[in-house]
Amino acid sequence: MTGQVDVDVVVVGGGPAGLSAALNLVRARQRVLVLDGNRPRNAATLHSHGFLTRDGVSPLELRRLGREEVASYDDAEVQFALVNGISAVDGGFRVTASGVRGAPDRDVTTARVLVAAGLRETLPAITNLRAYYGTALHSCLECDGYEKSGQPLAVIGETDGLVETALLVAVWSDDVIVFTNGSPFVSEEEERMLADRGIRVERRVVSEVVGERGELTGLLLEDGEVVPRTAGFVRPRWTAALEYLAGLGADTDDDGLLIVDAAGRSSVPGLYAAGDITPPGPEQLIVAAGEGAQVSATILRDMVFAGARSI
Predict the structure, then answer these.
(1) 152-156, 158-162, 167-171, 228-232 — which is least confidently predicted?
(2) Same domain, 32 and 88
(3) Cβ neighbours for 3, distance < 8 A, ≥ 6 positions apart
(4) Structural domain tally of the chain?
């Protein structure tokens, strides 16, 4: 990029992927600005599992610790801000963002941008479901399956991933019921296959989640029957919030996720991505952090070797 830039890399998203990348980049003596909208999709989750040395940590606490580590370096800044737009300027990028929680608005130029923002999450429209989401009901099997071992479990969703989810949930329990909530995403053949494995499919609409003293006890169906369950897993619909990239023309897949190569490069030179915003979508925190570290190495190599694809 010709001309002066304000920072070397702007990282959009302050989750494990973005903060891991930022930490590695600032340790490579790059000037880094992390912009985070402070709207993590896992905010309701009390405990996260499978992150080595941090098993059971709150995802919000993990993010807080990460922000503090990154911000402790002189050449790094972490700010709560919603990115409004990213445009190409003079071989680099201009990034504008609106500050949140009292933070100032930002308008900066940068040589490279790493998108590590999360996804919008839409749960099935079931009364009271969100009240149990993050405690009795979860979306990450690897994160929360162990804690639900042996319980009567529900798999709830309206997407085409229900069968795969149900088979995986059966690793932790022999009592699994799939609730399609009236959706057509489990075929009759798939239902027979699940039945052969001891997994029942309930096609009636779920009206409400039932509980006592904060503990889930069952799911109320539209005809009034309550199916006893004490925990379960939900298949949300995830959508990518990438309106701020509209002017760059970056390639996305059918789900709107940013397509990147094996090293994290998008179709736009200087634009990278890591974490949930790339296919296949939501993943464990430790996997996202690893991707962030990997992409930070790609960015550094591209800086040193002037954008060469390989050496």
Answers:
(1) 158-162
(2) yes
(3) 90, 109
(4) 2
